[in-house]
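To assess whether ligand presence alters the predicted conformation, the chain was also submitted together with adenosine monophosphate. Input:
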Amino acid sequence: MDAETNLPKGAILSGSDAASLRLAGRIIKTGGLVAFPTETVYGLGCDAMNPEAAAKVFEAKQRPQFDPLIVHLADRAQLDNVVASQPPMAQTLMDEFWPGPLTLVLPKQSIVPDLVTAGLSTVAVRMPNHPIAQALIREAGTPIAAPSANPFGYVSPTTARHVSESLRNKVDIILDGGPCQVGVESTIVSLLGPQPQLLRPGSITLEQLAAVIGPVCSLPPSYNHPIAPGQLARHYATLTPLTILTSAGTRPVLRPNERAGLLLISQSRESQTCFAAVEVLSPTDDIREAARNLFAALRKLDSLGLDRIYAEPCREVGLGVAIMDRLRRCAAY
Ligand code: AMP
Ligand code: MG
């Protein structure tokens, strides 16, 4: 219960309401936690400059401290407080993709707490393209450090209800902005080395990056040997075991009495009566719609007590790279 407002912990408030935004800004400023919508997924936000507040985020998510947070900005004026230098390529990428789902890893200012960056000399920054996220950062008057608003390792939330289901008791309030439009996390690019390097595929595609800055080094994802913090093999994962089918159109041979769910990228014509549940990410085979619906569909299938989820793969081009990355991590053990 919030002493000032009498709101129960984890209350869901409209993110479009000015009074709710003011309250949320005050909560951040005074070291509390606010879950808020962005275009990618819902974030669990705190004052990025307050190590005690950041500690609450790690505690709420049960997130290991080696996994750094992304710092969210409302405008580029806030950058100078957070990053120590901006190579020309960073400026080019910001001009092109900010506000938007692109996170840049740059040298950090010493004022950024070590907990936020997991002790690294670098910081990950992005400017979300969502009016509620931007308004919240402005109200708070400080950059907001935020990981996805879910227990560590679980499927990211794309609605306020998803957040409430698992973190209601751990967050002061939840701002509701409806379902997230992008649905998968931001693309992360490191600008520390001689060549830009992709650390996490996301909704800004390699093709889009290459069109602006030329080739981006994208090491083949090594799910067993992470090259950056947070690149854990098993992540974004359902509690129900998930198997990726060898190709679109392949169907598994189910064990006797196996209660299985099927996750399809697009509508298929065949009968699926042997499955206890089927989720179709995009009936019209639109990869953006598929990304938007991915996490909600995984959560839905995961709530049914199935023995296994079988997932159809998609083509690994464009946004398909990010979708397959999330499915592989979900399937990893
Ligand atoms: P999320 O899990 O969506 O909160 O995104 C946070 C991820 O951003 C981490 O798990 C890391 O993979 C990445 N990240 C954040 N800060 C850094 C950094 N300084 N260097 C490299 N990667 C980072
Ligand atoms: Mg996450």
